[in-house]
Amino acid sequence: MSKRNLTLLTDLYELTMMQGYYEKGQNEKVIFDVFFRQNPCNNGYSVCAGLDQVIDYIKNLHFTYEDVDYLRGLGIFKEDFLHYLSGFHFSGDIYAIPEGTVVFPKEPLLKVIAPIMEAQLVETAILNIINHQSLIATKTSRIVFAANGDGIMEFGLRRAQGPDAGLYGARAAMIGGCVGTSNVLAGQMFDVPVMGTHAHSWIMSFPDEYTAFRTYAEMYPDNCTLLVDTYDTLKSGVPNAIRVFREFKDSGKPLNKYGIRLDSGDLAYLSKEARKMLDDAGFPEATICASNDLDEFLLHDLKMQGAAIDSWGVGTNLITSKDCPSFGGVYKLAAIQNEEGEFVPKIKISENTEKITNPGNKTIYRIYEKKSGKIKADLICFSDEVIDIEQDLLLFDPIETWKKTKLSGGTYTVREILVPVFKNGECIYKSPTLKEIASYCCSEKDTLWDETKRLFYPHRVYVDLSKKLYDVKKSLLDQMNMTD
Amino acid sequence: MSKRNLTLLTDLYELTMMQGYYEKGQNEKVIFDVFFRQNPCNNGYSVCAGLDQVIDYIKNLHFTYEDVDYLRGLGIFKEDFLHYLSGFHFSGDIYAIPEGTVVFPKEPLLKVIAPIMEAQLVETAILNIINHQSLIATKTSRIVFAANGDGIMEFGLRRAQGPDAGLYGARAAMIGGCVGTSNVLAGQMFDVPVMGTHAHSWIMSFPDEYTAFRTYAEMYPDNCTLLVDTYDTLKSGVPNAIRVFREFKDSGKPLNKYGIRLDSGDLAYLSKEARKMLDDAGFPEATICASNDLDEFLLHDLKMQGAAIDSWGVGTNLITSKDCPSFGGVYKLAAIQNEEGEFVPKIKISENTEKITNPGNKTIYRIYEKKSGKIKADLICFSDEVIDIEQDLLLFDPIETWKKTKLSGGTYTVREILVPVFKNGECIYKSPTLKEIASYCCSEKDTLWDETKRLFYPHRVYVDLSKKLYDVKKSLLDQMNMTD
């Protein structure tokens, strides 16, 4: 993606609004927040991802001659504005929560502070990138959780929603905890393990299944997984695989890593039967890999039923997040700088209390219980607020304000999770490698209580507002004649 | 996409199988079919799309020095095979059903005839592209059908699964019947109308809603749609919009095209109230556009309830095909050429009759009722079969073979829908423009009976096998000791 010019990957209204601001000479600094209102798939948390691609996008923002020419042809933009666009670059600040961090509804994942014309332009692409990768990283986390330590391989490229969905979906899947992907281009671009064996067509292109297996084993003695369901799993596939494993063992050149893959039928029954056959034949170290329309629910049930499966290839349901294929990240105006240089908080009201935005220039403190290292709550504050961890900290629910928790000084720690990424248009953030992000994400999940990680009806993590932010929000609402 | 090298956008197993064939000197010509087993969203038909991107992909297939170097680094490929890859190009034939055609389960949308190493490599990317665009074109067709003549605008970029899903999703949405897209890059790349107005942030960046509306109208008097739900739709938004419309009318410079957009609340109630207010104020020609989590079901219900909405912006549910986010296209081996140059039919069996493939080198005749021009059935035949439309034609269900229909000679017409696209690696197909494809797709839907187009429990279109194909399939199954 870094070589592609995505500057026009935006909604037309961003450009018509930009021209509106341009014509009015209205280009004050503003703050926009990216946040979401609900975890996908009823999960207890989300995993944010996509920042590295946002950074590439912002760095590469520029209107080429062809872009300006195309816009001119639309007949709605004036020459002075088109001239401005031809010299456009991003000059603002961006703060973001690092990729792989566990995040919760309503907190800003990313904050843009920039002249309104610039801040408006970047809305659509930022949302597109963050929404997609955070969705897949979160869905993958659920599947990895259900696998309870077994490896999950990402096999979804053929069913992904276009090339990027396969490519950046694989990236997000690695962040969410996959051990590898079948996608070779993702392997090349992101330096992650690529995996795979053979297809039914391999078997069908040989005179018989045994010959196909034998040939494959000769080619790949170090990593030989045989697909056993082309004809009949238990009557033909597994016996032929065992015959090949035995021939290599008897020849004195045993296969190094080997096993079978099941891709149809009832995976609980077939895997248990296959396990018995492999064990009885003297191949207890042969692994059993399964694929075929898996998701976290089926995986959870198969494990409950004692399926003898060591690793899982997950495709369609992971790469599209089938039961919830969108992450509802939005981009909302939070403040406008006045002539004195102060940011005046702005609020978007709604009849639905849940949809009212949080005003002002904000940051987020993550509060951990000191003794366990687990997350107690996230506290959204104004960016100039500080927390003295030696003092008691009173948290309260921003809707049902009588629900309060007091944390005693010394029993908790805090971490500011929004970090600077761009300053005056310059990237000041060093992106970790994908492996580092994946490892960080794994440690992030250790900061969640088990109750938050379960697949069904997880315990909600509290995201509270500081007293100061709550008061400003309430007074803005009161001014609008509404109550929160 | 045409400038990107997608050669490594493939599953690792395609490459490990290729090396297997290479090492065995096994590179006979084979035939693979792309087909699907079920229409998405329980629709009565699908719309195929993506061929133009498949053509780009095939034309650009080549392993760069970096690609080969990356593969070498994986430690599983030998130098002679890597050398072969560095000179790789596609030399085969491809047949496909043109984009925008209505298609049905089990028929080949695309047929690859090529040496097995080449045919295997291209599986994943072809499926990725065809599955994605056919999905979105089909979903869009449902939404367009529910709108019953109102314009549908594609507004989904921010929720699409990555940049390509937004870009090629917009392309597919135009094929499926959208009147335009908000996606500027899609507009530029595919020469389609781009549309949009302004966001809530526009309103919020002005001291008040009236000033924001007035400013927008001054900027865009030729196409001025005002978003009326930032504060209170009926108490503030619509009255302010009317005030602006009236001021322009009174000034003697009335707005050209103008109206309002609703983006929250109950769209049936609000649109009817807004319509009354606009009419009473003397603006019956003001249009009402609606958005906010629309899909074909909500749209259908809103129209049933008399919502006074003229055009619809549809985002998330269209661009992700939310209730069914994958199109299950598969790529299956159908035949292998023997030493005499004949294609020997191959079949993939399954305990599930529905999943058994159709063997051989096939084509598809679409059979129309002569007097209505509507589709009677599709007939899958061997590619050398011809139909004499002066003769009677007996169709029978390939599963329940006692279900028969006889078409009398002279009462039907036929059209072969698979057309040649590549011949010996050369593209011999001239792609229509996107506008031409969209217009063709619209006429294609006219060949469907109303019963097939409805949203709920549509009538299934018959896809039958020729007697000759049925007999070959049955004998292959019998050889495998199974009955069809």
From TrEMBL, chains A, B:
Cellular component, GO, one term: cytosol
Annotated catalysed reactions: 5-phospho-alpha-D-ribose 1-diphosphate + nicotinate + ATP + H2O = nicotinate beta-D-ribonucleotide + ADP + phosphate + diphosphate
Superkingdom in the source lineage: Bacteria
Span of domain Nicotinate/nicotinamide phosphoribosyltransferase: 152-338
Keywords on record: Glycosyltransferase, Ligase, Phosphoprotein, Pyridine nucleotide biosynthesis, Transferase
Class in the EC hierarchy, top level: ligase
InterPro entries found in the cross-reference section: Aldolase_TIM (IPR013785), N/Namide_PRibTrfase (IPR041525), NAPRTase_C (IPR041619), NAPRTase_N (IPR040727), Nic_PRibTrfase-Fam (IPR007229), Nic_PRibTrfase_pncB (IPR006405), Nicotinate_pribotase-like_C (IPR036068)
EC number: 6.3.4.21
Domain Nicotinate phosphoribosyltransferase C-terminal positions: 361-473
GO annotation terms (biological process): NAD+ biosynthetic process via the salvage pathway
Post-translational modification: Transiently phosphorylated on a His residue during the reaction cycle. Phosphorylation strongly increases the affinity for substrates and increases the rate of nicotinate D-ribonucleotide production. Dephosphorylation regenerates the low-affinity form of the enzyme, leading to product release.
Gene3D superfamilies membership: Aldolase class I, nicotinate phosphoribosyltransferase
Sequence ranges assigned to domain Nicotinate phosphoribosyltransferase N-terminal in this UniProt record: 8-131
Pathway assigned to this chain's UniProt record: Cofactor biosynthesis; NAD(+) biosynthesis; nicotinate D-ribonucleotide from nicotinate: step 1/1
Keyword Phosphoprotein: yes
Annotated GO MF terms: nicotinamide phosphoribosyltransferase activity; nicotinate phosphoribosyltransferase activity
Protein's job: Catalyzes the first step in the biosynthesis of NAD from nicotinic acid, the ATP-dependent synthesis of beta-nicotinate D-ribonucleotide from nicotinate and 5-phospho-D-ribose 1-phosphate.
Protein family per UniProt: Belongs to the NAPRTase family.
NCBIfam families per the UniProt record, alphabetical: NAPRTase_put, PRK09243.1-2, PRK12484.1
Protein name: Nicotinate phosphoribosyltransferase
Source organism per UniProt: Dorea longicatena
